[in-house]
Design brief:
This protein is mainly alpha-helical. 56% of the residues lie in helices and 6% in strands.
């Protein structure tokens, strides 16, 4: 599924080129889970210590009339385990590239850096991502929204322009996919959110 790979690359590597501010969620701390990174925040003229804690989502049980078939659940787990790491790659690359671009003074050097990073990532991930199924591509687009708090369409439009966003949206539509798809952990994507939380906690 080549177009999904191209979309991922566009999102991951256009982030700093336009001088936009970072749109990603803060990357999860790499310290052990029993430790938290303390920082200070000024509020109303008072400086206070503060820590970032992970969002907790509380989800009610599904009603008996809406049981989720077990075979679909198994397939969904399989697909999410395959595409979730790539959504994390997009989030991480957005953060890392923006941080690095802030250290590069000239526009020419920035463009040279972006070209090299793009080349490296193509070599590293192309074979894996191009084999994704259409279903996995749809999940990836939703998970990008989950991890960056922006749809794929919005990210491409912000960093590449409306014409590029419209073009890739038309390509996605040929595969029955929507780059404007939003992640809804409390509604249509409730099962996905439950599975992802199990994956994140190490239970799956």
């Amino acid at each position: 599924m080549r177009f999904v790979f191209v979309i991922l690359i566009l999102i991951a590597f256009s982030a700093g080129a336009s001088g936009q501010s970072d749109t990603t969620r803060p990357v999860n701390d790499t310290l052990p889970q029993s430790y938290y990174r303390l920082h200070t925040v000024e509020r109303d003229g008072i400086t206070l210590p503060e820590i970032n804690i992970k969002e907790v989502v509380i989800i009610g049980r599904q009603s008996n009339s809406r049981k989720f078939p077990f075979w679909r659940y198994q397939r969904l787990v399989y697909n999410l385990k395959k595409v979730y790491p790539y959504a994390l790659v997009v989030r991480g690359k957005l953060q890392a590239i923006n941080d690095e671009l802030e250290k590069i003074p000239g526009e020419r050097e920035k463009k040279r850096y972006l070209r090299q990073v793009e080349k490296d990532i193509f070599g590293e991930y192309e074979d894996d991502v191009r084999d994704m199924t259409i279903t996995q591509g749809r999940l990836l687009i939703k998970l990008i929204d989950r991890e960056t708090m922006n749809t794929s369409y919005t990210l491409i439009r912000e960093y590449k322009g409306t014409i590029s966003a419209a073009f890739w949206q038309s390509i996605a539509r040929l595969f029955g996919t929507d780059l404007k798809a939003e992640y809804d952990p409390y509604g249509n994507d409730i099962i996905i959110e439950i599975i992802l939380q199990e994956i994140e906690s190490g239970n799956l």
